[in-house]
Prior knowledge:
Blueprint: E1 2-3, H1 6-16, H2 24-33, E2 41-45, E3 53-58, H3 60-63, H4 69-72, E4 75-80, H5 83-93, E5 100-106, H6 110-119, E6 124-134, E7 153-154, H7 161-166, H8 173-185, E8 188-192, E9 198-204, E10 210-215, H9 224-238, E11 244-248, H10 252-260, E12 271-276, H11 281-284
Parallel strand pairs: 4-5
Antiparallel strand pairs: 1-2, 2-3, 3-4, 5-12, 6-11, 6-12, 7-8, 8-9, 9-10
Amino acid sequence: MFVLGAEELKSAERILKGLFPESLKVYGCLFNINRGKPYIWEVIADSWPDFKAIICKPNQQCRQDYRDREATTNMCHVYSRDQDSLLKLLSALLDWSQYTLLAGIDVKYLDAVKELAAHNNTPTRMEVVMVVMTLDDVSHLKGPDSDLVSSRLKPLTAAFADLVDSRGKFKCRESYNSVLTYISDYPSLSVRGPDGAPVSWVLLYHHGALGRLHTEPQHRGQGHARTLLRSVARELHAQGRPVYGFVEEGNAVSFSLFTSLGFTHQPDYRPVWLVLNPEKQASQDPCC
């Protein structure tokens, strides 16, 4: 087990860039860390420099003071290209008595990880299976540009964090804190209404994925989501960021939206979100 320092983080980012789409989640974390947005992560590999598994996890000391969704769920971002290496790293790294969210496990490793958890007397629950939608080149974007005037397209600001959070799945102080950080630290974009308030928006998570895409019901059917995704994709590409998002398996509407814009996916790759000790969720996650 090897904890990555500043130089190793830069090297790992370069290596992971050649391993998309499986590495995108951890790559996105490292991209932000290496550009001065460290969040509260520590990054651990199974070995160095020839690593085969790598995990970004919340620093346990910081978790005591930093209250947001990622900290309270103990969210660990996972990448591996070898099952045995992943199992060894998880065995060495995890406190199997804690409530933990393992995010981004390749579905082909899922049974082995669940068996490892069972060996440690740790119950599990599969949260969700995702499809990774990627846009490798903005020239592949499909469809016409929007005729919205630029004055209606503006980044989100902290003043609208409560509004954005209120439209999400979770509504609590920890969820609000996450949204506030996303808006403050990473690119975002919104369509503004006549009163200046956002009527549609998209932002980035800590791991660099597009997320929180939402349009207020009375403003749907006007192409706002398409406009936002096209515009923010160009901005992210110009910044050298990967352009990608997760769509829940079976969500035909979101899948159709991304594919209609030119995003593609790798059919044989599915990342999974797996909860350890789900019975402890109510006490660990105040949003429940």
